[in-house]
Amino acid sequence: MRPPRPPRDAGDKPTRPKSPSATARDARRAAQHAQRSGKPQAPAAAAAAAEAKPARRGAGRMARPAVAAKPTVPVAPGEGERIAKLLARAGVASRREIERMIAERRIAIGDVPVETPATILKSLSGVTVDGQPVARPEPTRLFRFHKPTGVLTAERDPKGRPTIYDRLPRDLPRVMPVGRLDLNTEGLLLLTTDGGLKRQLELPATGVERTYRARVFGEISQAMLEDLIEGVEIDGVRYGSIDANLERRTGRNAWVEMRLREGKNREVRRVLEHLGLQVSRLIRTSYGPFKLADIPVGQIDEVLQHDLVNFRKTLK
What we know:
Blueprint: H1 20-37, H2 43-52, E1 81-82, H3 83-89, H4 95-103, E2 107-109, E3 112-113, E4 120-121, E5 127-129, E6 132-133, E7 142-147, E8 176-177, E9 186-192, H5 195-202, E10 210-217, H6 222-226, E11 232-234, E12 237-239, E13 242-250, E14 253-260, H7 267-274, E15 278-287, E16 290-291, E17 300-302, H8 305-314
Parallel strand pairs: 9-15
Antiparallel strand pairs: 1-4, 2-3, 2-5, 5-6, 7-9, 7-17, 8-9, 10-14, 10-15, 11-12, 13-14, 15-16
Catalytic activity: a uridine in RNA = a pseudouridine in RNA
Pfam families: PseudoU_synth_2 (PF00849), S4 (PF01479)
Keywords: Isomerase, RNA-binding
């Protein structure tokens, strides 16, 4: 039999040396405790905590070679105007269409594609669209067009339906519609060569009045129409003040005139349908000071420069 082992004193208990990771963990805990308690951390502990921080992932990897930046068109703040505004004024397209063309890299200055519609230029010298130089801006022109029913206010239609451009004269310069008339609405549609004027006329803040005549079926009274002067909310959409008047009635059919200063999608139809009326015909008779008058359906007439210049002076 083995002799019994002598009793070990508590102070003689062997201690296992701590691993480096355990030492680092203790240092981090001490640093966190000191930070929470507000006590200053010992220099040695601070150094240990700093050394204990894990190395950033990927720190030992080789740096990738720098990629040469693509040439860009310089932007000079405070000088000239935005290229989108200049191109719209030159009649290239509307600002929204120009922004899309820039995203498609179709617009360039020299050989360098324009990267942003916020590019500032003093002129369109050297600017190309689809490789073709932009012509110098000509005086703004405005036309009155009597839009028929059954044609779209669009340049093209994926379904092949006729558009207003199918009805316009071939020798007409490139024009853009001011606002829209839906497929079954007829009457005055303004067309302009100036994208800036188009935008100005469309903005509700400008406050240009539009007038419509609607033939409706159903029960209607002047009192019901007068309530629209305060505006109305339909399906979560707020429509502003509308000045509406009952012109004449024949049985349950009536003609209503409506004046408004904004052009939300199908606004007149939705408001009248909200009143329980069926709209069988809708005609826009004026836009600002410009009247449909006696222009035949499908025909176009140019606004005199004198009248256009005077009107632009009144815009906000």
